[in-house]
Amino acid sequence: MRTPKTGKRKGKILPKYLTEHKINAILESARPNKRDYILLLTLWRTGLRVSELTNLKKRDINYEEMIIHIHQGKGRVDRIIPLDKYLGDLLSFHMSNMNLDDIIFPISTTQVRNITHKYQGEENLHPHTFRHSYAVHCLKNGVNIRVLQKLLGHEDLSTTAVYLDLIGQDIKDEFKKVEW
């Protein structure tokens, strides 16, 4: 909820995210099911919203430039998301028998939620947790916040800046380990 005069959030609740180690453990447990593995890896390495993932078509991926083109995501904003070679190769193999207009993961958002729950272990995992984890991972690895804003498709920089608070908390937690 935003306050009327300042537009700032009351009682800031920070989004939940997973460390790279936890994400990798989840991916490893999903590896035997190729579709689930590729789907979860795509969420993790692209930061896509679930609705964007379930509407992603083969034609939206450009392998020459290694990008995903999201056509009018949330807020009716087009955006370009870089694609790493490993994920690009997996998606290419996964889509080898598909037509350009075929949806890559022809499942509902509820089914995506069920897939994430299947591999959650002790975590309370939701598809959007992968998006939060992507954002934090990018910031921790030096991605400029304005670039991250574009990658995530946020209209307002303050929406992206929430992830800086998560990084700040990590710094505080790490600093507590220092003995004086």
Question: TL;DR of this structure?
Answer:
With 180 residues, the chain is mostly helical. 51% of the residues lie in helices and 6% in strands. The chain has a single domain (20-170), classed as hpI Integrase, Chain A, CATH 1.10.443.10.
Give the helix/strand layout:
Layout: H1 20-30, H2 34-46, H3 50-55, E1 61-62, E2 67-70, E3 79-82, H4 85-94, H5 109-118, H6 127-140, H7 145-152, H8 157-175
Antiparallel strand pairs: 1-2, 2-3
Helix pairs in contact: 1-2, 2-4, 2-6, 6-8, 7-8
Largest sheet, order of strands side by side? 1-2-3
How does the helix and strand content classify structurally?
Answer: mainly alpha
Could you tell me the CATH topology label: hpI Integrase, Chain A
Which CATH C-level class is it? Mainly Alpha
Detail the poorly predicted runs.
1-9
* Beta-strand segment tally: 3
Annotated CATH homologous superfamily = Intergrase catalytic core
Specify the helix fraction band: 40-55%
Query: How far is it from the N-terminal to the C-terminal residue, by CA?
Result: 40 Å
So what's the overall shape?
Answer: globular
Number of helices: 8
Sheet with the most strands, sense and barrel status: 3 strands, antiparallel
Mean pLDDT: 90
Roughly what fraction of the amino acids lie in strands? 5-15%
* CATH A-level architecture: Orthogonal Bundle
Total domains, how many?
Answer: 1
Secondary-structure element pattern, one letter each: HHHEEEHHHHH
- How many whole angstroms does the radius of gyration measure? 17 Å
